[in-house]
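Dock 4'-deoxy-4'-aminopyridoxal-5'-phosphate; give full complex structure.
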Amino acid sequence: MPPASVKSLLETMIHHQEAKVLRIARDVIPTLTPEDIRNPDDFPALLGHTQFNFEDGILAGLKSALMAIRQQKVTVTSGDCHFFPRRPIYLDNHATTAVDERVVGEMLSCFTEQYGNAASATHVLGRGAAGVVETARARVAGLIGAYPDEILFTSGATESNALALGSLAGRKGHIISVLTEHKSVLDTLKKLELAGNRVTYLPVDPDGKIKLNEMRAAINSQTVLISVMMANNETGVIQPIANIAAIAKEKGVLVHTDATQAVGRVRVDARELGADMISFSAHKMYGPKGIGALWVRRGIAKTPDLVSRPGTLNVPAIAGFGKAAEISFKELPQEITRITALRNRLWQGLREAIPRLELNASMEERLSGNLNISFTGVDAQSLLLALSDEIALSAGSACLSASRTQPSHVLVAMGMTRARALSSIRFGLGRFNTGEEIEYVVDKIAEIVKKLRSLSPSNILFPKFV
Ligand code: PMP
């Protein structure tokens, strides 16, 4: 189709949606004229993708809604003022997050204006780019209460983890970690074992937590490092890093934490935490992919890898990371409250609509946006597939999702049976989710689970359980 006709088709669609909005709105404000909503470009920018604040007045809400329609972010699906977001509804925020528009805005100028090489000190464009990097470094450091010179930019948390653990290579020591760590940590630990290090993998209880006394008992005279993730990427379980660090300090052992799922989602203060190295990543906090950081405490002995990273700095990504960190720092308290309420609504809705659900890991000390649920008698892959056009979800880590015939190592470590682990779904709610989405997700999942259970052979034989 030539571009002109695509454009006119779009115009017609937008026009149709506007007419629909006007009709809905006239029920509320009978005096509303088409002119009242003709020029939404003058109106304040949208705060979120689908947040229309009708409490500020129906007209303001309407204008925001129209703007979103014009930008093709939402579609009007019913006649009673409900604006459903465009499909799919994104509930896979542990895998990655959408980039916040404010972050995109910050990055764009680095492509077209501040495009210098940050190492080119001889001219103004290079110095400008270096300034952008330093502003971003200060913002990223500010998010975790660190000094800017403690931040090493990396390509993401995978590299941060490899650097943190790899800095011990050659020391042939003993490392303590946990069975439920992310693949990027487990893979690096395997390499270190092959190179002659010894690793103790601590077990977790059914709630996914380690036991501090077991950790203390595992420390010996050879122990050089303890690496425990702060928040789990499948269950959202938060480990007591400050307590771990206090014990490690008594024994003179360094502590690294993979805080990729925690930074930007719970308050993380590097100094209060007491760890020595912290890995995190921009794309879990509404920043771009391919940029992360390793925080390395001032004063600890550093290998050259922990001091600087070779190569031209990715200035747009670093600027985006900085903006994402600045936004997270400012908005975190409200965001936690809002997302916790949505998550609780989702859990309550699902529990009321679907029998035989099991919550994996306790609701205490868990990321606000996380739920991990076993849908007894339902194969998680079938459920995901049935939902996949409308609701973006996963069974666990994105890094392992291609091979999901095996149960999650995290759920198995928590003591779950293979069958229960293979019926589990991970929900990751985030900044752009809305209450309307949650209502829709509950209804949709209830419908599909009912269908899948009714098709399962055991339920055909024993229908009372459906
Ligand atoms: N650690 C955890 C806990 C993660 O969730 C992820 C991302 N899935 C990583 C490390 C790797 O992060 P990145 O994608 O930035 O390399």
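Observed: The chain is about 45% helix and 10% strand.
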